[in-house]
Structures are given as structure tokens and as C-alpha cells.
Design brief:
The protein is α/β, with parallel strands linked by helices and about 190 residues long. It is built from 4 helices and 10 strands; from the N terminus they run H-H-H-E-E-E-E-E-E-E-E-E-E-H. The longest helix has 17 residues. It comes from Streptomyces mutomycini.
Length: about 190
């Protein structure tokens, strides 16, 4: 008597999984890849889906074939470097403090990713990372080096906000992760009017 092979158990979908599919479908409709009738049909199925297997076909034909994305390199060098303003966040960022230091400001970015990998090397100038309220930064993979890591962010993650996963070495300049300070908040409020 031979035993029948066991069937794999379907993985349950979370609210976040369903929300991610809904966002992708809405973006596809905005781009004209699906029409509004098809959007409505797919949204109905997405919101009722219980497993990943039910969600997968809803976006399978929407995924563009893209070459692997190159990480964004931000190098401080002698004079320092700042990445701020409005920019699209890639899945991977590498920040090298050098002598002048690096500042990466995520407060006005466009980010549709769930996780952003940021590799830091503090060098002598250090690396400073500014994230909006509601974004969470995971720092367990960072070597404190000589100057150490200062994480001044809160652990309260807003639904749909990305997770910044830090790795690397703080070096002699250190790494600071924080939310916007009072002056930066006022400037953001003025710009949003």
C-alpha cells in the first residue's frame, strides 16, 4: 500500500497582502493596463481572497519584465552628499559616509515598496537617515563600529508604510536614524500647502 503524497497547505493571506494587491491593481488601472470594469472584478476577488494562491493570478499578468534594479549609491567623499526632495526609492540603497558624510531624507519620497534595504558605512563623516513618522527602521544588522548607532525613531508603523532594513557598519562617523526635527516639519508643512 503506497501513501498518497500530501498536498501543500495554502498560505493564508493577510490584510496587508490584500491591500498590496489592491494598490497594484489600482496602479495598473491608472496606467491603462486594465480598464475600470476589469479593475472592479479583480478588486472584488482580491478583497474576498483568503490565500496567496487566490491573490497571485490577479496581478500575474501585470508584472512587467524588468532587469534587476541597481542599488542607489550615495557617497559622501570629501564634501559630503545629500539625497533629499522628491525622488523614487529603489529597493536597495548604499550610503558611504566618506569624510564629508551622507544625509538621506525620505520625508518627501515616492515609495511603493514594503521593504527598503539600506547598507551603510559611516566612514569618518557618518550617515544620517531621516524617515517620516510611521516608518519603522530595523537596525539589528548594523555593526556599531567606533561611533555607534543612534536610532531616534518610534516603533509604531503605519499600515502601508515601508520598513527600512539597515545593515552595515557605523565606522568612525556613526549612523543616526531619526524623524524630522521641528524646523524640518515646518518646512514640510509650508511645501505641502
Amino acid at each position: 500500500m503506497t501513501a498518497e503524497p500530501s498536498q501543500p497547505v495554502p498560505l493564508r493571506a493577510s490584510d496587508a497582502d490584500r491591500e498590496a494587491v489592491v494598490a497594484e491593481l489600482q496602479e495598473a488601472a491608472a496606467d491603462g493596463r486594465i480598464d475600470l470594469d476589469e479593475l472592479g472584478t479583480r478588486l472584488e476577488v482580491a478583497l474576498a481572497a483568503r490565500t496567496h494562491a487566490e491573490l497571485a493570478p490577479l496581478t500575474a499578468d501585470l508584472l512587467p519584465v524588468m532587469p534587476p534594479a541597481q542599488p542607489l549609491l550615495v557617497k559622501g567623499g570629501m564634501a559630503g552628499a545629500v539625497r533629499d526632495g522628491i525622488w523614487r526609492v529603489p529597493a536597495q540603497i548604499r550610503a558611504y559616509g566618506g569624510l564629508g558624510g551622507v544625509k538621506i531624507d525620505f520625508t518627501r519620497v515616492e515609495c511603493r515598496l514594503r521593504v527598503v534595504e539600506v547598507e551603510v558605512n559611516g566612514g569618518a563623516g557618518g550617515v544620517e537617515i531621516v524617515v517620516p513618522d510611521g516608518w519603522v527602521v530595523e537596525t539589528g544588522e548594523v555593526d556599531p563600529g567606533l561611533a555607534g548607532l543612534r536610532n531616534r525613531t518610534t516603533a509604531e508603523r503605519l499600515p502601508g508604510s515601508p520598513l527600512i532594513r539597515l545593515s552595515g557598519d557605523c565606522g568612525m562617523g556613526g549612523v543616526t536614524v531619526r524623524h524630522p526635527e521641528r524646523g524640518e516639519r515646518r518646512k514640510l508643512q509650508r511645501e505641502s500647502r
